[in-house]
Design brief:
44% strand; mainly beta; 4-stranded antiparallel β-sheet; 120 residues; 6-stranded mixed β-sheet; 10 strands
Length: 120
């Protein structure tokens, strides 16, 4: 599988963004998927995970109630809707296979991530 994240950009506090992660390959539906993020000078932080069918999702306490993870099985795309954005949400966001797993981050499969900047 090859993962390509997109949709990042500049948003104001309280605003929203929608991140996408396009996955190549035919086994997308079988993978649990996760989003992580990393701000400059900080460690990689888990954000959210979703099961293969899109029925079970989990969120970090920092984003619970503000972010929504989902997946489009037809398009083999992982989504993350970011809402009520805070400046501390600014980071590079990465998608990866696995439940709370970083397995693809930093590898050629994982891609470059997408930058989210929240600023007024």
């Amino acid at each position: 599988v090859q993962l390509v994240a997109s949709g990042g950009g500049l948003a104001q506090p309280g605003g929203s963004l929608r991140l996408s992660c396009a996955a190549s390959g035919s086994r997308f539906i079988s993978y649990y998927m996760s989003w992580f993020r990393q701000a400059p000078g900080k460690e990689l932080e888990w954000v959210s995970s979703i099961d293969g069918n899109g029925n079970v999702a989990n969120y970090s306490d920092y984003v619970k109630g503000r972010f929504t993870i989902s997946r489009d099985k037809i398009e083999s795309t992982l989504l993350l809707q970011l809402g009520s954005l805070k400046t501390e949400d600014s980071a590079k966001y990465y998608c990866t296979r696995g439940w709370k797993s970083k397995m693809d981050i930093g590898t050629p499969r994982g891609g470059q991530g997408t930058q989210v900047t929240v600023s007024s």
